[in-house]
Each structure stands twice: as structure tokens, then as C-alpha cells.
Amino acid sequence: MAPSGHPFAKRKSVRVDEIDPRSLLLLADGHCLRDQALDLCGHPDLGGATGADMRAASLETLLHMTAAGFGLTLAPHMAADGWRGKDGLVAVPLERRERRPPRASGVAA
Question: For the domain 2-95, what is the CATH superfamily, name and number?
Fold first, then answer.
């Protein structure tokens, strides 16, 4: 998800390696979506300089922060569909080189 004024907002898709991990707005520690974003895009401290450490307790808050122009965030497809065209947000799909499930699954016994 990108604010409507961001260069990514005009694109049909974005490669993961184009995302500056320092620009990512993340959920607080302990959320699986945070861990998945860090695994996918890298740690926000990469690259020598640190970005603002802005975290949120809910995806809804992250989307509002993104719409306000504080950075970019990753959101599940279902959440992006609900926000498409609202509040200055643009959903820009990620390009993937390999096909793999977006979430890890397991069976607990």
C-alpha cells in the first residue's frame, strides 16, 4: 500500500527489491504480518541509515499512517481490496519471481 502521491502509486506492480525497508510502516513486535514483511523486504536498519521507527497495533492504523504519507506498508490482499481508492491509498501488487504461499501454515498436534 502506498500513499496516492508516492511514485509507486502510478505503477501496476512493484518488485520487492525496489522497496526501501526503511520506508516500511510495520505492526508492533509479535504480529505475524510484521515478521512476514521483514522476511520479505529486509530489516529496516539495512542500508546504513535508519528510518523513523513507526509501529502500529492494528492494520487499520497502519493504513491510516500510510495514507497520511508516513511511508509504505504491506497488507493482505483482502485488506487492500477494502481500502482500494479510499483515503489517498493505492494498492500496488508485488511482483514475485517464484510462486509460494503468502503465509506459512502448519499443523499443531
Answer: Periplasmic binding protein-like II (3.40.190.10)
